[in-house]
């Protein structure tokens, strides 16, 4: 359904989406064009992925789909060059803070989607929120769900929920790395080597996430299953909660959410 597809930008995020889609066989190199800023990036993408990557504007009339994966501050500079895209071109932007109304105003002839992936898409374990613009179709929504499903899990949500998810799962890997580092520090404090402590912390977060997803069990019940009365784990949790673990998570996520609105107004 995606047809001839152009990636505008293929760095950390665009590149991860493109690699995932090619590996999953959802896209073939011959249907993909990539527009980047530097010839070095274009050359690297041509060599690695066999796609038609260039710093030159493509023939817009031949495109069915455009994935916009440039930085939000770059997007306003790039978009004027696309005024001539044909009506009905399907566009999806991953740029944080640029809402559907802005996208639809900039290129009103296109059918717009917005997505918020997170960095684990690079290892096939991302969560991507997808929001559908006013001209979205069931067919394109399904195609994008499959595309992001190839690099993790995709959820179709309202734009308000996409903003909320930005603060939970979009920035979430950042919080998880801080928690992982802190857990590893605690292991080092007890006398573990740094490398063993990091492995233990990373597997703990990975395994707990996998258990919650695969069992579908509420995290409070899973926690209950590992806290025996008067035992060690409940003593650890009680000490963490005394210094505000739960409040810290909530305050952090709300601060992220509010900051995202401040930035999008700029
Ligand atoms: N990384 C994340 O965790 C994450 C999560 C969710 C959403 N996003 C969104 O993803 C988007 C891209 O972020 P990123 O981290 O992938 O950035 P990035 O790694 O810096 O990649 C940016 C890409 O845009 C290209 N580019 C820059 N200026 C251009 C221009 N004038 N014309 C055409 N291409 C141009 C770059 O080409 P060169 O390589 O040649 O410079 C590069 O391929 C952002 O809007 C961000 O909000 C990122």
Low-confidence stretches: none
Report the mean per-residue pLDDT as an integer. 96
Oligomeric nature of the chains: single chain
CATH topology of the largest domain: Rossmann fold
Cα separation of the termini? 35 Å
Give the overall form: elongated
The computed structural class is: alpha/beta
As for the number of domains, it is: 2
SSE order and pairing:
Layout: E1 5-8, H1 12-23, E2 32-35, H2 39-49, E3 52-54, E4 65-68, H3 75-78, E5 90-93, H4 100-106, E6 111-116, E7 126-132, H5 138-149, E8 152-156, H6 159-170, H7 172-190, H8 194-215, H9 219-225, H10 232-242, H11 245-265
Helix pairs in contact: 6-11, 7-8
Question: Could you walk me through the main structural features you see in this protein, from its secondary elements to its overall organization?
Answer:
The protein is of the alpha/beta class. It has two domains: 5-157, NAD(P)-binding Rossmann-like Domain (Rossmann fold, 3-Layer(aba) Sandwich), CATH 3.40.50; 172-265, ProC C-terminal domain-like (ProC C-terminal domain-like fold, Orthogonal Bundle), CATH 1.10.3730.10. It has eleven helices and eight strands. Strands 3-2-1-4-5-6-7-8 form an eight-stranded mixed beta sheet, with helices on both faces. Strand 5, helix 4 (100-106) and strand 6 form a beta-alpha-beta unit. The longest helix is centred in the C-terminal third of the chain and has 22 residues, at 194-215. It is elongated and about 70 Å long. The structure holds NADP nicotinamide-adenine-dinucleotide phosphate. NADP nicotinamide-adenine-dinucleotide phosphate binds at residues 8-14, 35-38, 41, 69-72, 74, 77-78, 94-96, 116-119, 170.
